[in-house]
Protein 1
Amino acid sequence: MKLFIDTNFFVYLNSNIDDDLVKRLDALYADLVGENELYTNVLALDELIHVSRRKYGVSHSETMSFIKDIILPAVGVLPVTFNDYLATREIILKYNLRPSDALHIAVIQNNGLQAIVSEDEDFDRLSLKRLWLEG
């Protein structure tokens, strides 16, 4: 399956959080990498850098290393285009999503992806499949 990885998944993998959650996320990532084509976009990477530092105190250099060593070997990074912006306008109005979430959805739709890996329940407003940890 062709999956989009949302920012929150990467932020948790990159941050000092509960050991049990880290183990569950690491296991999910290993499963996803082994069985799917994984993608994200440049906006998600930008959000990762910003949120990791602001919310969890992870330095920019640590996050850049995380992106280079953990994300880029396994996840394709899709560009954000003007066509994605045009679709974003419609998605915001139709689903009342935040602009960045709507832009992620536009990238997903415009690149033929089939699901999103995200804890964000706002994506449940769409018919798009959302994957996250069970229970």
Protein 2
Amino acid sequence: MSTLPSDQNASGRDLGTDELALLKSVIESGTLTSTKGETVKNLELEFAQMLGSPHAVACSSGSAAVHIAVAALDLEPGDEVITTPVTDMGALAPILFQGLIPVFADTDPATLNVTAETIAARITARTRAIIVTHLFGCPADMGPIMDLAARHGLPVIEDAAQAFLAESQGAMVGTVGAIGCFSFQQGKHMTSGEGGIVVTADPALARRMRLFVNKAWGYGDPAPDHYFLALNYRLTELQGAVALAQLRKLPSAVKRRRAMAERLTSRISGLDGLELPSAPDGGDHSYWRYPLWVDPAAIEGGVDYLAGALRELDIPAAPRYIQKPAFETEVFRDQNTFGSSSWPFTLAAPEAVDYSPARFPGTYAGLDRVLVLPFNEGFTESHVDYIADGFRKAVEAQ
């Protein structure tokens, strides 16, 4: 079996003549900045149309997308934002940069997504927003989460960086909450190397997010100024050209991912000790990765054994995904932020920074058992069958 396609190179990325044609057009125009060009504007328009959202604003990365979303809420230093401990630092650092306190909710061990119940356990008088991450392409159970948020008057930001075209309760992920955030990083469902985009139905939030991308300069206003503290998070026309071509391929790419994931599920569903991925009722998975959970009582050695056995067959497999919850990193453990100040942790209530393992049983249980397989639109039936045969060999060799 040849090496499986990788989203880190051309073997697992659908990049080619469409991207080159749009890049050629941009280069020939001589306009590479999105403040003057049309390509990023077209990307925003087509992305918004695909998701059924009135507004989309492109930006320089998925981290920037989260920062833009959090900043758009215009919260006060020391305010609390509930989020997940199973995520990339790019989704957490923006909270700290805005002077806010990330408060970690526990996660469902069967999905590693936050739930209405785990979020509710962290709401305090200082809570001002909720960030829901749709991990691996699996939508969180948004119905109960939105009901909870409405009862407490809290805006919900969706981190959909791993969940392009996933659905929850009949709506596209990213359009359920107040703001949805997406990433165009190399390994996502669509890519421009780096880049991101935010969507919202709220014109006031859209206005503030577009300003934040542009140093709060009011392009097109009668008397523009820098209205508030903000950064330059613009996407270039070159990145926009690649992203636009990728966007037009996105439905096909997600359709192929789903088909291959369903094939893999059907091929390994009879193996003991494996809990396979599925979306909550009313949801539709888009399979950024293919995660599964391993029962060490049924498979001796658990995820470590299975990952090792698969790697011997040249099947990449990552046990535990991020290895440890985000609050165990030095940023949070040692409060390494701005110089020696520990700010904004100095503004936090004691319970907001209580990272005792007993408060996160689902997170630890889920990470201890999860095994994550790479997945991309380059996978074919033969690739999936090879992986399935590898699982069968590994499990039956017990």
Protein 3
Amino acid sequence: MIKTYIKNWSFLRLLRLGLGLLIVIQGVEAKEWFTLAMGALFVAMPLFNIGCCSTAGCSTLPAKNNSNNLEEISYEEVK
């Protein structure tokens, strides 16, 4: 099970996990709870593969093409 979970990891996902762990460690050492919470968020994102761009959360639907309203385009040759 772990092999299938780790199979889809990229370098950037590992980098985000490492940076999140560094933020968590810094928050614990400094006793800053807000920093700890933000670090936990940054650790959770690569662990669960969530985020705007990692799971295509930012994708938009393609525009619908209305074939009834097509206009003919004329081109002019430029010399």
Protein 4
Amino acid sequence: MQKILIIINDPAYGTEKAYNALRLANQLGKEYSQVEIRIFLMADAVTCAVAGQITPNGYYNIERMLRFSIGKGAKVKICGSCLDSRGLKSAPLIDGTRISTMPEMTEWVADSDKVVTF
């Protein structure tokens, strides 16, 4: 099985990098069920995994997009030290995400067939 790792660094809102990364993940999940999608959230992207996001009508919602990815089988890990440094270690996180470490990210990088960064 092919493994694709998507690393997201930018915040949930303010730029469209997280939005576009999740668009890619979700399209891959829809069209290529035989591909394992891995998403690693680090730096300000850890905000993507915070549960309870409210956005104006007509505006994309990163939480919904991430939940869709997880529903299609994507594995999502969040940098624990990045969460901690932003005061989010005890924030409610989206079900299906998991706090992770740099060694685990390194393992994913070495084990993935493709790595895409946003």
